[in-house]
Design brief:
Length: 445
């Protein structure tokens, strides 16, 4: 990432020209706001499930992509009894929420399903993506390009990873809902690439390139320019009914108030002709808060299930795959003043750590609350909050090795192998995951 940062800075210095974001979102024309790649269309397909299973994939470059891929493989290989037959845990997943590096795995699975296990490693995990992007940035022809560095990444992902796919291609029978998340640079809003959020822009998500959404989710500011989308005027400035209802419930809920205030800004169309999206890790590096936002803005879990005609499940499960590492700063070994790079890195690590802790606590408590409000004496609902975290690797040598894997888009085959292995092992040995499997087994008898 540092090599890419300096390449970007070099390009800025030699160009000295303004760049403009390429706009590829289209207006919402003759299409139902509930159709296409929407929460409504997906949730209605899953109304009969007994397990409401959500995955959250964190940021962390290819390290995050490989770790989350290992979790998908483990879920594929884990079978549980259901209605007299064995089914894969992977098939119980109805939503995957992702940011940054985790979005590559999530989007690829959304497009290809089990096909991810055939070629994702070759298409992305084992590629020198970083080298290709640096070569593009340093290409003299790009120095005079008006479109900026982000278009280099978008074109690369579109050609080599996602093969020109749009969100229309993501609508596949039996696939989970993939919620790719970015951050609105101007207003700090968490933005999810689902039709309900694109309705705020009066735009049609189905025509939007998947590669562009993933680029937005992983576009580290300064290193990359934002992905720009147009906020079309056709829908006017009046808030939709669901947002009005959410606004009425914000009096005693500062977290909900913050979400609603951010979403309201898209209706200030005289000020917001465009929105600029960058790395989703800025507003939520775990992909968890997007899940919270979507359900709480709807009115909580009870209202959420009712709105989408979904029966309460017996189990509410969230598996969060956290690929963050523990920094080992060298500055405290000497009285030499830390460099600018060290200072920025340390500040980012501290902020990220504390925000992750707060996010995990919020989601864990909320999950317990959801289970409580859904439970009845006849049908209790259980909550399972399962954390897959590199720091939980027991072997000190392996843990130290993986802790040094950089946040980059270029890893060695050994690093990729060990991350995939770690993802499966950490999930398999997780006590809460084991409890989930034991309960499913027991309840099926």
């Amino acid at each position: 990432m540092l090599r890419m940062l300096w390449a970007g800075i070099t390009l800025l210095l030699v160009s000295g020209c303004a760049s403009y974001g390429v706009v590829e979102n289209t207006p919402l024309r003759d299409v139902s706001a509930d159709a296409g790649y929407s929460i409504k269309s997906f949730q209605e397909k899953w109304r009969t499930g007994e397990t409401m299973l959500t995955l959250a994939f964190s940021g962390g470059g290819t390290r995050a992509s490989a770790l989350s891929y290992g979790v998908l493989k483990e879920l594929r290989d884990t079978s549980v009894p259901y209605r007299g037959q064995n089914v894969r845990m992977l098939d119980a997943v109805d939503t995957i929420s992702s940011v940054s590096g985790g979005s590559f795995t999530a989007a690829y699975y959304g497009l290809h399903g089990d096909g991810i296990f055939d070629d994702f490693e070759e298409a992305f995990l084992r590629r020198d993506v970083e080298g290709a992007l640096i070569a593009g940035i340093l290409n003299p022809l790009e120095w005079i390009s008006p479109t900026g560095r982000t278009e280099i990444a978008t074109k690369y992902y579109e050609k080599h990873v996602f093969k020109g796919a749009t969100y229309a291609d993501m609508i596949q029978e039996g696939r989970p809902m993939i919620v790719i998340n970015a951050s609105d640079l101007g207003y700090g809003v968490r933005f999810s690439f689902v039709q309900e959020y694109f309705n705020l822009l009066c735009s049609d998500l189905s025509t939007f390139p998947v590669a562009r959404a993933v680029t937005a989710s992983s576009a580290v500011p300064v290193l990359f320019n934002p992905i720009v989308v147009e906020n079309f005027q056709d829908c006017g400035t009046e808030l939709p009914e669901w947002l009005k209802a959410a606004k009425k419930r914000t009096a005693d809920d500062p977290e909900l108030a913050s979400i609603v205030e951010g979403l309201e800004t898209y209706f200030e169309r005289d000020k917001r002709n465009y929105a600029h999206f960058v790395d989703g890790g800025i507003t939520d590096n775990l992909g968890l808060r997007a899940i919270y936002d979507i359900i709480e803005v709807t009115g909580g879990m009870t209202h959420y299930l009712k709105k989408y005609n979904r029966q309460p499940p017996r189990r509410v499960v969230v598996i969060v795959v956290n690929a963050s590492t523990e920094p080992e700063p060298e500055m405290d070994q000497t009285n030499k003043q830390p460099s600018l790079k060290e200072s920025i890195g340390a500040m980012s690590d501290v902020q990220l750590h504390h925000y992750n802790v707060a996010t995990i606590e919020l989601m864990k408590n909320t999950l317990d609350h959801w289970a409580q409000v859904l439970s009845t004496p006849e049908k209790p609902v259980k909550a399972y909050f399962i954390r897959v975290n590199l720091k939980d690797i027991k072997d000190p040598e392996r843990r130290a090795f993986l802790n040094k894997v950089p946040t980059s888009f270029k890893l060695t085959d050994e690093q990729v192998d060990k991350l995939i292995e770690a993802g499966g092992e950490l999930l398999r040995e997780n006590p809460d995951f084991r409890r989930l499997l034991a309960d499913v087994e027991s309840e099926s008898k």
